[in-house]
Amino acid sequence: MDTLMDWMKALNGIIVLICQFLAMVVLSIGILKALKIYLTDVLTPGRSSDSVKSSRLELGHSFSLTLGFLIGASILKTTLAPTWTDIGQLAAIIAIRTILNYFLLRDIAVHSESPKDNSANNKS
Questions:
Q1: Which of 1, 6, 81, 118 has fewest C-beta within 10 Å?
Q2: Above pLDDT 70, what percent of the chain?
């Protein structure tokens, strides 16, 4: 039985590391993509406000996915024999990250809808 628990702890640790690594990869790629969008659009005259908006949306999507990976890693860390302190810390971490993700996704929705609204008004 101890061998099975050791294997589960080792597998859990590996999966947590993979989740954290994926969070770093997603965030890094999102930053690079946002920088590329910004740099290519800012060099086009009259498009700098669009480039800022587009790059912010790209970063927002990356941050949201990154938070998802980090929440998953936090949950997995406490799955094997958690103490009440671990559970309380996990609850606080999940609450903070979920609130951040909620406001981030709300901001993304507001900013991604605004160009559609403007184009619809221009057609009328």
A1: 1
A2: 87
Per-residue model confidence as pLDDT tens digits over 50-60? 777 888 888 88
Give pLDDT, residue 123.
Answer: 46
Q: How far is CA 116 from CA 22, 28, 109, in A?
A: 32, 29, 11
Domain boundaries, the chain: 2-114
What is d(CA 74, CA 107) in angstroms, rounded to the nearest whole number? 25
Q: Give the C-alpha separation, 97 to 68, whole Å.
A: 8
The H or E element spanning position 15 is: helix 2-42
Integer Cα distance of 106 and 1 in angstroms: 47
Query: Which residue type is seen at 50?
Result: D
Backbone angles phi, psi at 46, to 5 degrees: 80, 5
User: Which range has highest mean pLDDT (16-20, 38-42, 83-87, 95-99)?
Assistant: 16-20
pLDDT at 110: 85
**DSSP state letters, 77-113:** HTSSS--HHHHHHHHHHHHHHHHHHHHHHHHHHHHHH
